[in-house]
Every structure is written in structure tokens, then in C-alpha cells.
Amino acid sequence: MKYLWILLLLVPLFAQQTFTNEEVLNIANQIKELQYSDSIKTVQIENLEKQIVGYKKQAEIDSLLLQHKDFQIGLLDERSKLYEEQVKLVKPKWYESKYIYWIQGSAIILIGSWVSSNVR
Q: Is residue 5 part of a domain?
């Protein structure tokens, strides 16, 4: 068991890879690019989460508006039915007939012309 631990500790020491300055700079630049893209992505994620919150609020408002409109439609239907009942209940009186108005108008004209012809 003792030899196994020694092997496990010594193998990484001999297996190290050395990089040139160019490779180290390339790796550092790639790390910087990835960090920058990661920061951009986190900003995008935050913006999208804000949009999601806005959309949820808008959905709640829309559902409330739909409920209100449905209630309003029900009230308007009820009002329409009440108006129809009111029209059925309110019937014209016997003296509000158009035939009676025609007869009255004709009588006034005839009497007026008869009086004007006899007064001369």
C-alpha cells in the first residue's frame, strides 16, 4: 500500500507538460474571451429574466381585463333583455295611433277650408 501512495504522488510530478510563452498567452486570451462572453451571457440572462417577469405581469393584467370584459358583456346582455321586456310592456295608447293622427289632421284641414270658404 505504501508503494501505491508513492506512485500516485510521483506520477503527476513526471507527467507535467510545459507550455511556451505563446501558448500561455493564447490560453490566457482564450480565458479572457470566455470570461467576457460569460459576463455578456449573464447580462443577457438577467435581461431575459426581467422580460419574463414583465410578461407574467402583462399576462395577469390581460386575464383580469378578459374577466372584466366577460362581466361587462354579461351586464350588457342583461340590459338588452331588460330593454326588450320594457318595449313589450310599453304599448302605444289608443289615441297614439297614426290613423287617428291622420284623421285629426284631415279633419283640421277640411274644417279650416270649410270655415275659410264660408266666412267670405
A: no
Residue 3, domain member (yes or no): no
CB-based contacts of 27, cutoff 8 Å, min separation 6: 19
Domain housing 109:
92-120
**Per residue of the chain (120 residues), what is the pLDDT tens digit?**
777 777 666 666 565 677 788 988 999 999 999 999 999 999 999 999 999 999 999 999 999 999 999 999 999 999 999 999 998 888 877 778 888 899 999 999 999 999 988 886
The three cell numbers of residue 47 are 435581461
CB 88 within 8 A of CB 81: no
Rounded-to-integer distance, Cα 75 and Cα 88, Å: 20
Residue 15 lies in a domain: no
> Is 2 within a domain?
no
Grid coordinates of 44: 443577457
